[in-house]
Write a structure and sequence with these properties.
The structure is a single chain. The chain has six helices and ten strands, in the order ααββαβαβαββαββββ. It has helices at 9-25, 32-40, 72-81, 99-105, 118-130, 167-171; strands at 61-64, 67-69, 89-93, 110-115, 136-140, 153-158, 173-184, 189-197, 200-210, 233-234. The strands form two sheets. An eight-stranded mixed sheet has the order 5-4-3-6-7-8-9-10. It has a two-stranded antiparallel ribbon with strand order 1-2. Strand 3, helix 4 and strand 4 form a beta-alpha-beta unit. The radius of gyration is 17 Å and the shape is globular. The protein binds S-adenosyl-L-homocysteine. S-adenosyl-L-homocysteine binds at residues 63, 67-70, 93-94, 96-97, 99-100, 114-117, 120, 142-144, 159-160, 212, 214-216, 219, 232.
Length: 236
């Protein structure tokens, strides 16, 4: 038996509540809907079984294919930055474990999520269906090209870092829509928020972060993939 021995659903619930208080509320996340979503989604069911005991720790975790699930605080911070009210059509680039997708699905009308690795997309799709998250569509492919058939989007979340914001994503943002995500090189990324106002895009710099690279036609080239650190967390 591994480190999960004896862990029951209510133990995870207690850890989750502590995570929300210590990592989310105490650090200044104010959006009540975001806090409630972080309270509801069972994060331990989105991490590999042998890491479940670490699911509510203040850190990212490996999820396979050299990718990571972001630390809880960054998920809450990025979600709050999207300023969702509940009726939005949201695009996510980088489904990964599906955890961030689940959070978004509680806060918007529909979530479209794109993942480059079929293995991760398949696992996420199954988990989300099992847990009853219905307003989600997942596609395997290159998210740097967006999802043109479903555009425009009221909100776009990138959970992998391109060198610059991919042009198709700018174009698929609705008027008044927000795009949030990390942009920069492998050592030095900034979380940015881009708000579309008609033919203008207003950019704000939020905080420094480290994410895995976005690999695709409008992002980094495939062969640069290996050089990146496999983490996604805030630099404090
Ligand atoms: N939101 C995820 C975080 C996953 S890490 C979670 O909550 O678990 C970022 C993910 O982006 C990885 O799974 C990686 O494979 C994916 N990715 C990188 N480039 C991509 C691209 N061009 N299109 C779609 N997914 C991409």
């Amino acid at each position: 038996m591994g480190p999960n021995r004896g862990m029951r659903a209510h133990d995870y619930a207690a850890r989750r509540e502590r995570m929300v208080q210590q990592q989310i509320v105490a650090r200044g996340i104010r959006d009540e809907r975001v806090i409630e979503a972080m309270r509801r989604v069972p994060r331990h069911l989105f991490v590999p079984e042998d890491r479940r005991h670490l699911a509510y720790e203040d850190r990212p975790l490996p999820i396979g294919e050299g990718q990571t699930i972001s630390q809880p605080y960054i998920v809450a911070y990025m979600t709050a930055a999207l300023q969702l009210k509940g009726d939005e059509k949201v695009l996510e680039i980088g489904t990964g474990s599906g955890y961030q997708t689940a959070i978004l699905s509680l806060l918007a009308r529909w979530v479209y999520s794109i993942e480059r690795y079929a293995s991760l997309a398949e696992r996420a799709r199954r988990r989300l269906a099992e847990l009853g998250y219905r307003n989600v569509s997942i596609r395997v492919g290159d998210g740097s090209a967006g999802w043109p058939e479903e555009a425009p989007f009221d909100a776009i979340l990138m959970t992998a870092a391109p060198p610059t914001i991919p042009l198709p994503l700018r174009q698929q943002l609705a008027d008044g829509g927000r795009l949030v995500g990390p942009v920069g090189n492998r050592y030095d990324q900034m979380l940015i928020r881009l708000t579309r106002k008609g033919k203008q895009w207003v950019q704000e710099q939020l905080v420094p972060v480290i994410f895995v690279p976005m690999v695709g036609r409008h992002a980094w080239a495939e062969d640069q993939d290996d050089e990146w650190p496999g983490v996604s967390s805030f630099q404090e």
